[in-house]
Structure formats: C-alpha cells, structure tokens
Design a protein that fits this description.
The complex is a heterodimer of chains A (289) and B (305). Chain A has 289 residues and is mostly helical. Chain A has 11 helices and 2 strands; from the N terminus they run H-H-H-H-E-E-H-H-H-H-H-H-H. Classes of the chains: A mainly alpha (289), B mainly alpha (305).
Chain lengths: 289, 305
C-alpha cells in the first residue's frame, strides 16, 4: 500500500471516528453552554442509545427505525429528568448538577443492565451500507463513509438550526441572559428541558450509530463520558464549532496515535487536552476561563 | 475534644468485641474515611471540586505496593514514602490544574487521573498493567516489630494514621492557613485582592490533600494485598466524592462517616440485591436534592434543635 492511499484511508477512518465523537461532544457542550450544567450522565445516554438501537433493530427489523427511535426515547428520558430533578437545583452551585447527574449515571446504568443483561449485543450494519468500496485500490467499509456523511449533515443541521430558526434564536438568547428572555415572555424552563432532551438525544444518536462498530456493551458509558469531556474541554465549554474542531483533532490523534505509538495512544488524548488547557485555559474556541 | 477521645477509645477497643470479618470491613472503612477526609480539604474547605482523587489513592497504593514487593523497606516507611510521593506529584498536578477554575478545574483533575490510569495500564514493568500488583506483603516493621503483620495490628496502624490525620487536618483548617482556604471558597477574587496569593494556597492544599489521600492508598495495598487499575479509575473518584457529599462536606468528620456509610450500604445491599448501584444512585440523588449538608449536617442539626 503506498503512502497516498494509506493516508487517505487513515484520514477517512479518523473522520468517521470524529463523527462519533462529535455526536457525543456536541450534546454535552450545548447543555453546558446554555444551562451551565455538566452532564455526567452523558456517556450513559450514549450507551442507552446503542441498546435502544439494538432493540429497535430487533423489533422492527430496520436500522433506520433505531436511528429515529433511539434518540427520541433517550431525549424524552433526558427531558423528563430535567423537569423532575435538575429544575429544582438551579439556585444551587454548579457542583450539585455534577453530582445529581453522577447519581443518574449509576441508576440508568443499572437499569440498562437489568433490561438488556450483561452481554455485549451485536448490531448488524444495514444491508444497504454493509459493502466495501475501493478508494485508490484500498478497500474501505461503506458504513464508515456513511458515518462521515452523517456527522457532516448533523453538524450543518445543528448550525443552521441555531442560526436560522426561531427556536435556535431563543436557545442562543437563553444562554446569554436567561432572565431577560424570561422577562420577554418566553418559557425559559421549557427551552431548558428541550435543550437537555436534545443534548441527550444527540448522544443517543451517536450511540445508535456506534453500535454496529463497537456493539452495545456496558463498558461504553465510561469511555464515552471521558471522550466527551475531553472534546468539550479542548473545544471550549459551550462552543459548538469548538466541539466539531476538537472531535476532529481528537479523532486524528487517536487514529494516528494508535498506528504509530500503540503504547501511548491512550495517554496521547489526555496530553493533548493538558497542552490545550495550559496554552488556552478556556479551550480552543471557548471564552477565557 | 471529649467526644473525640471517646470515639477514639471505642475504635481502639473494637478488636475486642468484633468478629474478624467485621474488623476487615472496619479497617477498609477507616482507610476510605481517611481518603474521603483528605478530599474534603479540597472540596469542603476550598471549593476545589476534584474529580480525580482516585489518582492520589492509586499513586499511594502502587507506590507502597512496589516498594514492599521490590525493596526491603519496613512497612511504615514504605507507606510514608508513598504518601510523600503522592504529595510531591500533586504539586505538579495542582500547578497545571489551578490554571483553570470551577468546572474546568474538575475536568482537569479528571484528565490527570485518567492519564495516570493510562500509565498504570501500560507501564507493565512497574504497575503490572491490567493484572496490577498482586501478593503485596505486609513486611515486618522496623526494629523487629511484627505487630503490623496481624489483622488487628494492622487495624491499629490504620487507626493511628486516621486519628493523626484528623487532628492534623483539624488544626490545619483552624489555622490562619485554613482561614485563607475558606476565603478562597467564599470569594476568591476578594481573597486575592486582600493580598493572598490564592494560587499558591490552592497548590498547597492540593498537595496536602494528595499526601493524605496517598497515605490512604498506601495503607490499602498492603491491607488488600493487591493494587490494580480500578483504584485509579474515574468511577472510584466519583465514589469518593459521593462519600464526601453524603457524609457532609466541610466537616472532616462527615466524610469519614460518609465512607463508613458507603461501605456498610454496599455490604448490606449487595447481600440482598445485585442491583445495589441502583439504590445507591437513588440514595445519593436524594442526599444531593434534599440534604446537601449530608449525614453529619443532619445529625448536628438534630442535636442543636
């Protein structure tokens, strides 16, 4: 394999990885940017998405149904959690959120174990995406290309949603001055529940999409939450373009790190994060901390 | 102070009345209590919410385990050396972490702990990778003292460490140094403008907290006979934070109670149900929602009322 095709394949690998990381990070950063909540349960929603995707595929026989149902159910649970518990904590300091969502991680993780069992569950790649294409004579799975496309579509979609729609306007306004928005007659609580639900739904979407590659397992949440935190911190907490940039950066470090320094791949991501924080404590595109 | 002496005496007499398995539980609870109390210095007194305190525990556990396995250092010295190591490493960690504030600080501590986890996972020659260190001996103490090799003797070592650390922490938070820490907790900008170099104070408290947390870890590995990567995992950091909050932050005593409560609850629940984490999470959520002052806060409020 010559250098060019090697680089092409590795870069596409990294981009497909970046798409998964982006789904994970963007929800967390949206929730943090608008609500100032660090959602520790984010990785668990990602895991929930993978398991929901598995069940949807089993019940309906269609991967696409899972892609719709998984985020909807997870988003609903997230929104309900915000309405039931988080809403009562807005007057307390930030750490209360961190701890309540940590509690949710334990509870939700255990419920998932009770419902789906301890075994890793394999999800089939849908037939239409299961093939292989040849890029510069190198085989490459279609599903990974699909992930890159899905990541790009969702990124553009969120961006347009935030910039062009009325709801997006409300969300941006709430993040800047919630009291003022409230005074103008907007139900801020509803916006917040919606945002929390959307953020959790995006994590679940990432989970459904990751399931055919990783299979749905109970270990997913732990890795996912750490990855998500790293992305949000590198990109800058609350910055949407930052999460996209950080997802791509981290994915490239992971893919090329695993190839060239397999022993240090795990540490490379954290070193990157420390480096970014020392140079820019607020993250690449975040406000100064 | 009178209560302190009473509790200390009660704990000192525990081996006379309790069966061996209860002593094992109690020893572990005291070790975890020491760890939770050390975190309280950061969380409760300085409002530095560390999500990586497992790093201190793991450092201590691996260091003392390594020293006991590969050198002939007597046990108390190995434990002490491990504790000092954790404190020294903490200075570097804190130097970086205190660049950030608030939530970013928490995330940075988490990143450091995970970095350490990655190192523990990969540095096979020192940490034994995923197998960890096994068969860590309780070597004979200096000057031919062998009392630490027995279960009850080891319990006394742990008890002395905990009581000593408690008295140390109490005088620390009561000192002018502790007053500055509380100043940082309430209003860092104001404390800074009063002429205190708050960053140095924060680095100092992280170092002390890590040294004591490292002491707990260093006591754990000879007690359990092993050290593995789970001791450095982020989930454990979260659990220690739970102990501090459930027990009552900013009280020193509370986190020790929280640790004991955690141990007891895990022990009891796991006898009745496999899903103890479910109930545990619910209890924890309940505490954060309805009793942010923790067990100790509830107890003392009842006593005052």
């Amino acid at each position: 394999m010559d250098l060019l095709s090697f680089l092409l394949v590795q870069c596409l690998n990294a981009l497909s990885q970046a798409a998964l990381l982006f789904f994970l990070g963007v929800g967390l950063t949206l929730i943090f940017g608008i609500m100032r909540i660090v959602n520790f349960a984010h990785g668990t929603f990602y895991m929930l998405g993978a398991f929901l995707g598995y069940s949807a595929v089993r019940l309906t026989g269609s991967f696409w149904a899972g892609l719709v149902l998984g985020p909807l159910v997870a988003g609903g649970i997230g929104a309900a959690f915000e309405m039931g518990l988080l809403r009562r904590l807005y007057k307390r300091d930030d750490s209360a959120f961190l701890m309540v969502t940590f509690g949710l991680t334990l509870v939700l993780g255990e419920i998932i174990r009770l419902v789906w069992g301890v075994d890793a569950l394999q999800v089939q790649v849908p037939d239409s995406l299961s093939g292989i294409v040849f890029l510069l004579d190198e085989p490459f799975p279609v599903y990974r290309l699909f992930l890159v496309a899905a990541g790009a579509i969702v990124a553009v979609g969120i961006w347009q949603f935030l910039e062009r729609t009325r709801l997006g306007l409300l969300i941006r306004a709430t993040s800047q001055n919630a009291e003022m928005v409230h005074a103008l007659g907007v139900d801020v609580n509803l916006v917040r529940s919606g945002i929390f639900g959307i953020g959790c739904g995006l994590a679940a979407l990432g989970g459904v999409l990751a399931a055919p590659l990783l299979s749905a397992s109970l270990g997913m949440a732990g890795n996912a939450i750490i990855d998500a935190f790293v992305i949000v911190i590198i990109g800058g907490m609350g910055s949407f373009p930052g999460s996209l940039l950080a997802a791509i950066l981290v994915a490239f470090v992971q893919v090329f790190g695993t190839y060239y320094f397999p022993d240090f791949a795990m540490a490379a991501m954290y070193l990157l994060m420390l480096l970014v924080l020392v140079v820019r404590p607020g993250g690449l595109l975040g406000k100064e901390a | 102070m009178r209560i302190f002496v009473c509790v200390a005496l009660l704990l000192a007499m525990a081996p006379l009345g309790l069966p061996l398995f209860a002593m094992t539980l109690l020893t572990e609870a005291l070790i975890l209590g020491l760890l939770a109390m050390s975190l309280d210095l950061m969380v409760g007194y300085t409002r530095l919410i560390s999500f990586g305190h497992a790093a201190a525990y793991g450092l201590g556990a691996y260091a003392s385990g390594y020293l006991l396995l590969h050198t002939s250092l007597p046990l108390p010295f190995a434990v002490l050396a491990a504790s000092v190591l954790a404190g020294v490493v903490a200075i570097g960690v804190a130097w970086v972490c205190t660049l950030a504030k608030g939530v970013s600080f928490s995330m940075l501590t988490l990143a450091f702990a995970q970095l350490l986890y990655a190192v523990a996972f990969k540095w096979t020659s020192v940490t034994g990778a995923s197998d960890g260190l096994a068969g860590i001996p309780r070597t004979a103490g200096p000057f031919g003292v062998t009392v630490f090799q027995t279960k009850n003797g080891y319990y006394y070592l742990v008890l002395v460490c905990l009581l000593g650390a408690y008295l140390f922490c109490r005088s620390l938070v009561g000192s002018p140094f502790g007053a500055v820490l509380r100043g940082i907790r309430e209003n860092e900008a104001k404390t800074l403008s009063l002429g205190y170099n708050t960053r140095l104070y924060k680095i100092a408290v992280v170092a002390v907290s890590f040294a004591l947390g490292g002491l707990a870890g260093a006591l754990y590995s000879p007690f359990a006979g092993f050290a593995n990567t789970e001791l450095v995992f982020w989930l454990f950091s979260g659990q220690v934070l739970i102990m501090v909050i459930v027990g009552g932050q900013g009280t020193l005593i509370g986190p020790i109670l929280g640790a004991a409560f955690f141990m007891l609850l895990e022990h009891v629940l796991s006898q009745y149900t496999e899903s103890w984490a479910l109930f545990f999470g619910l209890i924890f959520i309940g505490f954060v929602m309805f009793a942010p002052q923790g067990i100790w806060g509830l107890l003392t409020r009842r006593a005052r009322a």
